[in-house]
Amino acid sequence: MSLHFFAGPWLAPKHLLWMWQGFLTTLWLSLLVAFFATLLGVVLASARASTVQPLRQAATLYTSLFRNTPLLVQLLFWYFGLPSLFPDGTMDWLNGDHVFHLLGPLSLRWPSFEFLSAWCGLVCYSTAYIGEEIRSGLRGVPAGQALAGAAIGMTRLQVLRHIVLPQAIRLILPSLLGQYMNIIKNTSLTMGIGLAELSYASRQVESETFLAFQAFGVATVLYIAAIALLEALGQAHLRARRVRQGRA
Amino acid sequence: MQLAVIVDNLPYLLWGNYPEGPLGGAALTVLLSAGSAILSALLGLALGVLLAIGQGSWHRLLVVVIGFLRAIPVLMLIFWTYFLLPIAFGIDVPGVLSVMLALSLVSGAYLAHAVAAGISGISAGQWQAGLSLGLPRWQVLHHIILPQALQIMLPSFVNQWVTLVKDSSLAYIVGVGELSFVAAQVNSRLMVYPAEVFLLVGLLYFLMCSGLEQFALWVGRHFSADRRAAQRQVPQATVSLTASQA
Predict the structure, then answer these.
(1) In chain A, positions 74-113, which contact chain B (CB-CB < 8 Å)?
(2) pTM of the predicted model, to two decimals?
(3) Taking every pair of C-alpha atoms in chain A, what is the biggest distance, in angstroms?
């Protein structure tokens, strides 16, 4: 095994900056996806537990469709396929530059179409997984809890919102955290549709400098750092909860 | 929807230019996933056994390596094997093989935990029974523990196969001509039917994955029925085992 490529020159600041910007895109995308996929995951899990049969069947079909096809193909569909179904002019607007002015100096810039389709694809995909985790959490809450809620006159929605869901979330927090880690890892696939996130940046640096070891090394370390941070947050939360329960 | 155009391209999507050219499309996806499934099953079994019975600093190192493989995106590992194997060993590794290697490593790491959990799920009495018969540890593992643990683990193996079929689509990014890659090719050749092309490809993947999922469910039912039947005949099974060892 020749070792010469380990000892090559280090990456230039310009290239390290590309990687850092890619990493920020990865984190921002993961955050937006995790937030919306959790919200929709609750909706999906409630639909799967619904008493309305067509709703239940639709939710089951959704879960099966999105879990049994590759994320990359879904992303390719959202990026290449969907625009062809839009009416004329929609794409021009989506690709355009819009700035939304918020309070004072704060303004929101309209994201690129790559970012939009990456977000949309990842939310749809992750919802199917998070929905299943939440569903198993809902099942883990004893039925007596829901019955007690119903007995004091709460509607089904109120029972879900105030009694079952808070307990279920606590049950599934570890596996939910695992899903968030999967989201961070899955954002790497969005380079397939040209989003300049971390994997894309590492590939770009590699093809410009031929320093494959350094480029992929930096990207790998950044991914591990993000995953390790989530893991540490989870551990800290569990410890805090144990302390609270110990006092109680 | 222009069905005729899609139908014209179906053979290319299914098996590429075979037999005139290299095999590609869905056939290559199946081959790639099957190869990774076999490799990762062997790897997962070996690492899982080490994880379950190992001790000391080697065991800690193994935990770290498995943790590393599970923490990085599959795509990163594909980059490592695809771009660095040829440089590191000075040989030309075909893209399919480097993707297969990356998929096997990741999936082996996931299976290792399933195998370790399966082994520790077998009650300690089974170990003690084997050891008191005078069997060496690895024979207890081979004849008593693994046959029972494998039944528990089988569903997670099949689930991992579904993941492999889906993850084999990542070969697209390094230009291996499997189903996703030929789909993108067909799409850029036709230009006008992107939605139809990717829906069809999604359907092909769906058929493969949900077929495997149904198989997993069937296997799960089959084995849990078997296990219940086997548990009723435990004394008999123990007798036949001692007889075969004598």
Answers:
(1) 74, 76-77, 80-85
(2) 0.87
(3) 74
